[in-house]
């Protein structure tokens, strides 16, 4: 990956709706050369996917919560079962299996407290392997980016 590839990736991470012609002009390439580079970056997996990032409040999911989860039983089988359950939930936008006192960290996007309550009933109920969970509701987002700076 050279300097031009990195510049293209930075530009796309800011605004993936830019046209190939616009990208080519900014990085000083012909449109066909630029297109070949973008296709290579996609085919090699450096570009994982191209998505639209929604405004949470305007899309009806203005409430954000961070949940730490401690599991009762450990081991790959037990944690995988819980993570599969979590993966099916639309309100869970990120889920991480982590080291330390906490076993899992969940990031939630919710419409309201009713949605949160229903989610808790589904994923933390008896038989879920959850010993404890702690929820922190986000008061203010100071920084939230999706870009990986190169």
Q: What does it look like?
A:
The chain is an alpha+beta fold and 150 residues long. The protein has 2 domains: 3-43, Orthogonal Bundle (Arc Repressor Mutant, subunit A), CATH 1.10.10.10; 63-137, Lrp/AsnC effector binding domain/regulation of amino acid metabolism (RAM) domain (Alpha-Beta Plaits, 2-Layer Sandwich). The chain is built from 5 helices and 4 strands; from the N terminus they run H-H-H-E-H-E-E-H-E. It has a 4-stranded antiparallel β-sheet with strand order 2-3-1-4. The chain is elongated, with a radius of gyration of 20 Å. 11% of the residues are buried.
Topology:
Blueprint: H1 3-14, H2 20-27, H3 31-43, E1 63-71, H4 76-87, E2 92-97, E3 104-110, H5 113-123, E4 130-137
Antiparallel strand pairs: 1-3, 1-4, 2-3
Helix and strand element order: HHHEHEEHE
Approximate strand percentage: 15-25%
Q: How many domains comprise the coordinates?
A: 2
Radius of gyration: 20 Å
Helix proportion range: 25-40%
Please give the alpha-carbon distance between the first and last residues: 10 Å
Content-based structural category: alpha+beta
CATH class of the largest domain: Alpha Beta
How is the main sheet built? 4 strands, antiparallel
Give a brief description.
The chain folds into 2 domains: 3-43, Winged helix-like DNA-binding domain superfamily/Winged helix DNA-binding domain (Arc Repressor Mutant, subunit A); 63-137, Lrp/AsnC effector binding domain/regulation of amino acid metabolism (RAM) domain (Alpha-Beta Plaits). The protein is of the alpha+beta class and 150 residues long. The protein contains 5 helices and 4 strands, in the order αααβαββαβ.
């Amino acid at each position: 990956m050279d300097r031009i590839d990195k510049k293209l990736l930075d530009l796309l991470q800011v605004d993936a709706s830019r046209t190939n012609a616009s990208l080519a002009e900014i990085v000083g390439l012909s449109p066909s050369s630029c297109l070949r580079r973008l296709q290579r970056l996609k085919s090699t997996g450096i570009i994982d996917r191209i998505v639209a990032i929604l405004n949470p409040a305007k899309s009806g999911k203005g409430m954000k919560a961070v949940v730490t989860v401690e599991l009762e039983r450990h081991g790959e089988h037990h944690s995988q079962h819980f993570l599969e359950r979590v993966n099916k939930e639309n309100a869970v936008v990120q889920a991480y299996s982590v080291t330390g006192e906490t076993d899992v960290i969940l990031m939630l996007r919710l419409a309201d407290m009713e949605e949160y309550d229903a989610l808790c009933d589904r994923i933390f109920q008896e038989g879920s392997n959850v010993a404890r969970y702690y929820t922190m509701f986000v008061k203010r987002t100071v920084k939230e980016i999706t870009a990986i700076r190169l």
